[in-house]
């Protein structure tokens, strides 16, 4: 697998999961709130905060025909144009958010939704580009982002294996091998039972790149489980308080939940470890409490050893119990008091 690094932070199976706190529209149009979200993400221990860099005219048109009106779900009845106008992060905020992120030790980057957004972010020296699931089907946008020479993270919601392969090829043909993929279910919120986390190790094997999860389920359990299955990246929407409202608040984590997500994901990564059947260092002290062979009645020279005389009991300082059949019926060589760990020197 080819690892990658974003702003010097290595990402891959041998490194702790890279946790991205997705601000999305949870700034609710308030720069002060956006700054507070950065601080909350830093305090929670997230590695990065991701923005969305778009203008509604770049991804749709202002039209109220049925094709341009959302049916059902949390945004049902809203025009696409109005939704994106509300969701956008003003471009003049970006330099201040990037700078504040650096002060807080956060990596700040963004999802561009058109080529102009790519160019704008490149001018800010954005450390990576994130391609959203809905945009991965646009090879022109993907290639333009990839040609900037920065790491590219691609969400794969609604994409089949062939679609993902085509996008991976687009990035590589652009001369960029700094690629990660995110398994994603593009529903808001996404039902836990549709998560199909078993896809994560398969995707990693299929494409040889770090794979993570862009998680739209409610709560933290699915994201933590993804790390257990090998996810190198976890992306999760967050807000200051769901009660404050906003387009994404209903499936976003609050700061204390984000902190628990970060802690649990890193603990699970540590616990996942490596394939090993060796005795762990922490088990050394417990080894003494395994069963072994002990003399349980005094033995005398020439006496036949029976199960009344030697048994498998705790602690573990004697011969292993598997040797009991070889000992039974043999003669004792010397006097051995009750409570002595049995060894080969005690038989003729």
From TrEMBL:
- Superkingdom of origin: Bacteria
Query: InterPro entries from the entry?
Result: AFP_Neu5c_C_sf, Aldolase_TIM, PseI-like, PseI/NeuA/B-like_N, Pseudaminic_synth_PseI, SAF, SAF_AFP_Neu5Ac, SAF_PseI/NeuA/NeuB
Q: AFP-like domain: from which residue to which, for each copy?
A: 292-348
GO terms of biological process kind: carbohydrate biosynthetic process
What would you give as a GO molecular function for this chain, any one?
A: N-acylneuraminate-9-phosphate synthase activity
Q: Which Gene3D superfamilies match?
A: Aldolase class I, Antifreeze-like/N-acetylneuraminic acid synthase C-terminal domain
Q: Name one Pfam family in it.
A: NeuB
Under what name is this protein listed?
A: Sialic acid synthase
